[in-house]
Write a structure and sequence with these properties.
The protein has about 140 residues and is mainly β. The strands form two sheets. The chain has a nine-stranded antiparallel sheet with strand order 5-4-3-2-1-6-9-10-11, with helices on one face. A three-stranded antiparallel sheet has the order 8-7-12, with no helix packed on it. The longest helix is centred in the last third of the chain and has 11 residues. It starts with 6 loop residues before the first strand and ends in an 8-residue tail after the last strand.
């Protein structure tokens, strides 16, 4: 992944064996993380599988991370945090919660479609409010 366009987020991995801190990277095409010494990559969070491509899929676990996502109102950036919770089992369920202006804006989608969940959160924002930056498509 190119360091010029790579985003890095810290979070947690949890399964029946316990929890551990993880680092998630996204470069606009792929998402990757290392869990218990195994590299997982995919075109989306819901498609994470052991490297090389086509390896064992990541399942039976939860990934959780936060990332800054400013909200712009009247041309002014305001701090906000997007909390992400991805449950990988028989299907992928993604929950996004934007903490902004003393409120929480939530969206949950089956299938783990990050862009769809993010759009649902955006539609809940007050009129004239927008995200201050674009998150990577791979997420």
């Amino acid at each position: 992944m190119s360091s010029e366009s790579t985003e890095v987020w810290t979070g947690w991995y949890r399964d029946r064996s316990g929890a551990e801190a993880i680092v998630i990277t996204a470069d606009g095409r792929r998402v990757a993380t290392r869990i218990r010494g195994v590299e997982y990559t995919g075109e989306s969070f819901a498609a994470l599988g052991a490297a090389p491509a086509g390896g064992q899929p990541l399942t039976g676990c939860v990934l959780e991370w936060d990332l800054p996502l400013p909200v712009v109102v009247d041309g002014v950036d305001q701090q906000a945090t997007l909390s992400c919770l991805l449950t990988l089992g028989e299907r992928a369920d993604l929950s996004l919660t934007l903490h902004y202006g003393g409120a929480a804006f939530e969206a949950v989608v089956a299938g783990g479609d990050f862009e769809e969940a993010l759009e649902r959160v955006r539609r809940q924002l007050p009129d004239g409010a927008a995200f201050g930056r674009r998150l990577l498509q791979a997420a």
